[in-house]
Structure formats: structure tokens, C-alpha cells
Amino acid sequence: MNPDHNYYVAHCIDEPVFTTEISKIVSTCDDSKNLIIGLYLIEEDRFLYCNKVFKKVIGFDPYSLIKGGWQFWFSLITPCEVSQIRSKIFNFFTMPLVRDVITLQYHINNGKGEEVCIKHEILIYKLKNKMFALNYFFDISEKEEIERCVKINGGHRGRSFLKNQLTCISSREEEVLKLIADGFSSKEIAEKLFISNHTAISHRKHLIQKFRVKNTAQLIKKASKVLEL
Prior knowledge:
The protein has 229 residues and is of the alpha+beta class. 47% of the residues lie in helices and 19% in strands. It has a 5-stranded antiparallel beta sheet with strand order 2-1-5-4-3, with helices on both faces.
């Protein structure tokens, strides 16, 4: 085990078996050279671990994330994006586990005051009766710049056959779809959109039919390929 990793691991875990297994995972994460990895305990609402790549890419000590938690991370996100990203992350953790992974893309300001484009993947796991989330943070600033250059010079990407399905979706259905992706139940969607619960359920059923899927999880996965959810 990397002798330095204890500095980046929060303490006060009561279950020895869980601690042992997590230590094995942490040892593997310590070997990462370019990937930022943060381990978050969902029920305890705290980060347990963050590797040293955090300092290399973000410019802050990894312990800043462990000590400050999500509020510290949200403070780095650009103001125009933080509200939406915060909502998506919290909804992901509080909703029934319709899906166990979420991928986000947004911008942060690093320790040098530079803007960094981040791809953020969160995967939920269960280990020894504890729910935890592995957070992978990728610096994709170069990728974003290349794609921006392609677009301003006339390049464009073709959409898949799913694009045709968008023409069949009403603006109301698109609203419902985005709320479904954020983890809201039909009842909650009805309250937010000031429609009846029956109407919200009908929208959900119609969306499942239009995207030719069997359930909500498949709907979100398929729709996310052609819509920013």
C-alpha cells in the first residue's frame, strides 16, 4: 500500500471488514497517474478518499475534497453551471436506483484560476452493506478545444437514427423526459409541471413507446444519446 495514501483517506470507519476491503481499492486508485478518483460514502454524506492526481489537475490538496465535501467541489464549478450540476448530483443520490451511473460534463476553475472542462462519472457500488460512489474526474479541456475548432470551421456530427424520434416528441414530453432523467417520480413531475398525476404517467408511457424501450432505465439511456439530459 502506498505509505502516503493515509493522508488522503478520512478516518472513523467502524467496520473493520469494510475498511480492509476499501484499503485494497484505495491502493489501486493510488497507482493512477492521470485520473482523479474520489470515493464518496453515500449514507454518511462524506468523501472518504481522493487520490493525489487531484492536486496535479485541479491545483488543490486532495484533502480539500475530503474535508469540504461536495460544497467545496461545487465552489469550483463555474457559476452558470453549478446550480444544474448540483441538482443532478443530489437527485442522483436521493432517487430510487433507477440507474447506478451518471455522466456529467461541465467547467471548473482550478487553483491557478484557469477554466478546466471536466467529464465526471459517478458509479454506485455496494460493499459490506455500505453504499459508496466512485467519482471519476477527467480533464477533457483539450478535447473540448479540438471539437470547438472543428465546429467553427464548419464541421458537424451526424445524429443517429434516433434523431427522427425527436420530431415526435412534444415540448411538454421533453420537459417530462428531463425530469425523469433527474430522478423525479411521476407524482413529483405532476407537481412541478402543474399537471395531473395521470397525465404525468401517460407522458412517461408515451415516451417509453416512442423510444421503443421497455422501462425507464432504458428510456434514459437511449434518450441521453440524442438529448442533453
